[in-house]
Amino acid sequence: MKAAVIVFPGSNCDRDLAVALERAGADVTMVWHKDTELPGGMDLIGVPGGFSFGDYLRCGAIAANSPICRSVISHAEKGGYVLGVCNGFQVLTETGLLPGVLLRNSGLKYICKPVSLTVKTADSAFTQGYAAGSHITIPIAHHDGNYFADEATLDRLEGEDRVAFTYDDNPNGSARDIAGILSENRRVLGMMPHPERMAEPTHGGTDGAAMFTSLVGQLADA
Amino acid sequence: MKARVHVMLKNGVLDPQGEAVRHALGSMGFDGVNGVRQGKVIELDLAETDEAEARKTVTDMCEKLLANTVIESYSVELG
């Protein structure tokens, strides 16, 4: 399975994401934001966490309009897989690949701690390694993770089984406790928690590892 | 030509920063502040001299980058 991880100025989870994918067996290439083309034959594009472009204007807004993002959008439109974590989720909402937006946390504070999530659906290459309804512990680290979308969009996400994860104890004010969502074709996942930071025993837990092993297993067969 | 873009959160979108400012004002003794909404002002210095053209371009900028129309509304002032 071949994966690319995009690096923006201010990305700081790019290496963590690459390592998590590599440990699961993926062949990973790092791609700079000024590149206009993705390397050929990519199965998965990772959009990492961090503070791309200093979070200027709005989190993810400038990254979403960077040269490489046009290629990421066309990869997704052709049915390619994309995983956006934290700032990567913010970037994906700004590109329009995922609906809604991440607002400032309702408590106005930056929150960095492990949180308990419920896996809402196992019906995706990202989540099929988990049982739907199971609880996993994954860290969050964000100032702007308060998921917002209009009521009709939220109803549609729930109705189409596109909510991937919810918070068990909502830390940031997210609508309907949403921590991560899938695109309509279930091949783009955006999530605020960091599975790559809970992927091996030295991290203090391995609840995130199943996402990477399941992705590599699925996409290697594809 | 100069353009000034005002970006505000739409009604119905919770503004926790505005709320924090409202609380601070209350605790400082400024009574009677029923609500605070915080927005952004972006000033652009444009080479364009035609007002209609400038408005069209700045509107396009707002739609594509300066505002996120899922949560924000914008208005453009030229002059």
TrEMBL record, chain A:
Q: Which InterPro entries match?
A: Class_I_gatase-like, PRibForGlyAmidine_synth_PurQ
Highest taxon of source: Bacteria
GO cellular-component term (any): cytoplasm
Question: Which positions are catalytic residues?
Answer: C86, H194, E196
UniProt key word Hydrolase = yes
Q: What is its EC number?
A: 6.3.5.3, 3.5.1.2
Biological process (GO), any one: 'de novo' IMP biosynthetic process
Q: Report keywords, A-Z.
A: ATP-binding, Cytoplasm, Glutamine amidotransferase, Hydrolase, Ligase, Nucleotide-binding, Purine biosynthesis
| Reactions this protein catalyses | N(2)-formyl-N(1)-(5-phospho-beta-D-ribosyl)glycinamide + L-glutamine + ATP + H2O = 2-formamido-N(1)-(5-O-phospho-beta-D-ribosyl)acetamidine + L-glutamate + ADP + phosphate + H(+); L-glutamine + H2O = L-glutamate + NH4(+)
- SMART domains, sorted: GATase_5
**Location in or out of the cell:** Cytoplasm
One annotated GO molecular function is: glutaminase activity
Can you state the subunit structure given in the record?
Answer: Part of the FGAM synthase complex composed of 1 PurL, 1 PurQ and 2 PurS subunits.
Role of this protein: Part of the phosphoribosylformylglycinamidine synthase complex involved in the purines biosynthetic pathway. Catalyzes the ATP-dependent conversion of formylglycinamide ribonucleotide (FGAR) and glutamine to yield formylglycinamidine ribonucleotide (FGAM) and glutamate. The FGAM synthase complex is composed of three subunits. PurQ produces an ammonia molecule by converting glutamine to glutamate. PurL transfers the ammonia molecule to FGAR to form FGAM in an ATP-dependent manner.
Q: Which PANTHER family match?
A: PHOSPHORIBOSYLFORMYLGLYCINAMIDINE SYNTHASE SUBUNIT PURQ (PTHR47552:SF1)
Name of protein: Phosphoribosylformylglycinamidine synthase subunit PurQ
**Native organism:** Roseovarius marisflavi
Gene from which the chain derives: purQ
TrEMBL record, chain B:
Pathway assigned in UniProt: Purine metabolism; IMP biosynthesis via de novo pathway; 5-amino-1-(5-phospho-D-ribosyl)imidazole from N(2)-formyl-N(1)-(5-phospho-D-ribosyl)glycinamide: step 1/2
Tell me the lineage of the source organism.
Answer: Bacteria, Pseudomonadati, Pseudomonadota, Alphaproteobacteria, Rhodobacterales
Its EC number is 6.3.5.3
Give the catalysed reaction(s), semicolon-separated. N(2)-formyl-N(1)-(5-phospho-beta-D-ribosyl)glycinamide + L-glutamine + ATP + H2O = 2-formamido-N(1)-(5-O-phospho-beta-D-ribosyl)acetamidine + L-glutamate + ADP + phosphate + H(+)
**InterPro entries, alphabetized:** PurS, PurS-like_sf
Q: Where are the transmembrane segments?
A: none
What does the subunit section of this Swiss-Prot or TrEMBL entry state? Part of the FGAM synthase complex composed of 1 PurL, 1 PurQ and 2 PurS subunits.
> Organism, per UniProt?
Roseovarius marisflavi
Localization, per the record, is: Cytoplasm
Q: Name one GO cellular component term.
A: cytoplasm
Return the HAMAP family for the record: PurS
The identity of this protein, by name, is: Phosphoribosylformylglycinamidine synthase subunit PurS
Show the GO MF annotations: ATP binding; phosphoribosylformylglycinamidine synthase activity
